[in-house]
Specification:
Helices cover 43% and strands 23% of the residues. It is built from 11 helices and 10 strands. The strands form 2 sheets. A 6-stranded mixed sheet has the order 6-7-8-3-9-10, with helices on both faces. It has a 4-stranded antiparallel sheet with strand order 2-1-4-5, covered by helices on one side. A hairpin with a 2-residue loop joins strand 9 and strand 10. The radius of gyration is 19 Å and the shape is globular.
């Protein structure tokens, strides 16, 4: 739960009095144009950015009651650049947080193998590889596995599929939906792509100039946008859908 979160950088308001409740097992997308405050909001959840006002409550606990490094080890975090450590193998990258948490080697190995199977990168083929030996889509899947490694209660994702080609992105989106549904994950997902949000989100929170304009289900947003900025963000996927329909109708 986010309660009246605010963040300023000098005179610039990055996030302005944002309140948002995310239910257990729910996937909520934060969407909006560049500079709207969505990434800053996401980073305040795990204290990569400290709020100037407001608080974050996770499972009934104020996140400020935990040291930042302890909090971050309990929250999975994935982002567009992936950030795999080039000197570590795929398996070692995934096991970074479990190792910091003191898991024994056998438990780490079992978790790595389980997650590689989950993201469709068999351990026998991929565990020992270096990140440089992977395609962009494979690196994104390793990044997702790493974010899930310590069995987090909450998963934060910042445009994790934004740097791959459209076919790979579509497959990653499908696989993400399957994984998060199967595991019952609670997810806050930042994206600039409204089509992605409409396909994957349980609810979509639209931000503009640091403020939360509207939060609702994809169906409700499409039916009743409450603000001109929401309508503008919805216009692109609707226009694309109509263009495809015209092409199909024109076929002999």
């Amino acid at each position: 739960m986010l309660e009246q979160l605010s963040k300023r950088y000098g005179e610039a308001v990055a996030v302005d009095d944002v309140s948002l409740e995310v239910a257990r097992g729910e996937c909520v997308f934060l969407v909006g144009g560049s500079g709207c405050g969505k990434t800053t909001t996401l980073k305040m959840i795990n204290r990569l950015v400290e709020p100037d006002a407001g608080r974050v409550v996770i499972d009934g606990q104020d996140h400020r009651e935990l040291p930042p490094h302890t909090l971050r080890r309990q929250i999975g975090y994935g982002f567009q650049q992936v950030g795999l450590f080039p000197h570590l193998s795929v398996a070692e990258n995934i096991a970074v947080t479990p190792d910091l948490l003191g898991w024994d080697p056998e438990r780490q190995r079992a978790r790595v193998h389980e997650l590689l199977d989950l993201v469709e990168l068999p351990a026998a083929d991929f565990a020992a590889r270096a990140p440089s030996e992977l395609s962009g889509g494979q690196q994104q899947r390793v990044g997702l596995a790493r974010a899930l490694a310590a069995e987090p209660a909450v998963l934060l994702l910042d445009e994790p599929f934004g740097a791959v080609d459209p076919l790979t992105r579509d497959r990653l989106q499908q696989r993400f939906h399957e994984i998060r549904t199967r595991l019952g994950l609670t997810v806050v997902f930042v994206s600039h792509d409204m089509s992605e949000a409409l396909l994957l989100a349980d609810r979509i929170a639209v931000m503009h100039e640091g403020r939360l304009l509207q939060i609702d289900t994809p169906q409700a947003l499409l039916k009743a946008p409450a603000h001109g900025q929401v309508e503008a963000l919805l216009a692109t996927p609707q226009r694309q859908r109509e263009a495809v329909a015209r092409i199909l109708d024109a076929q002999p």
